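Lab channel / #folding
Pinned by the channel admin:
"Please post every new chain as: sequence first, then the structure tokens as a reply. Keep commentary short and put observations after the output so the thread stays searchable."

First post following the new format, from NK:
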Amino acid sequence: MDATTDRRSASVRLPSDAASVRRAREHVATFCDGHAIGAEVRDVVRLLVSELATNAITHAQGEVTVTVRIEADRLTVEVADGSTRQPRPREEALPADPGDWTALDEHGRGLQLVQALADTWGVETDHAGKRVHFSVNPAGVAYDEHLRSPA
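Reply from TO:
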């Protein structure tokens, strides 16, 4: 595991194994904590990087690089891998009632979560592979009310 860090960004290269998903979550959580990002935003970022890292490890070959960077009004996380295959969110929508989510397939919903919880997201490809990224407002996450946990 190789890591690079400066004040505004941090990257870590991870092997293509299941333990790397946990390390990706820890990487972004440590960065968020070091920049006084609130728990709600940190938890959303941890969830979303977990989804992207799982996709990269499941569908790509080789190492995965997780980069997190902060700007004045944006926290961006990028997961890069060696595959040029474009990820696609599932077509069917998440049920409006979170109580119905237990009936869903266990796989294929990660990009729907990214779409629902991130302010922006996207994919860039080049000869070396792809980078899937998302951004959130570090001051707070604006997302659909039905996605909030019960109080």
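NK: Residues 2-142 form a domain with the Heat Shock Protein 90 fold (CATH 3.30.565.10).
TO: also worth noting, Residues 39-59 form the longest helix (21 residues).
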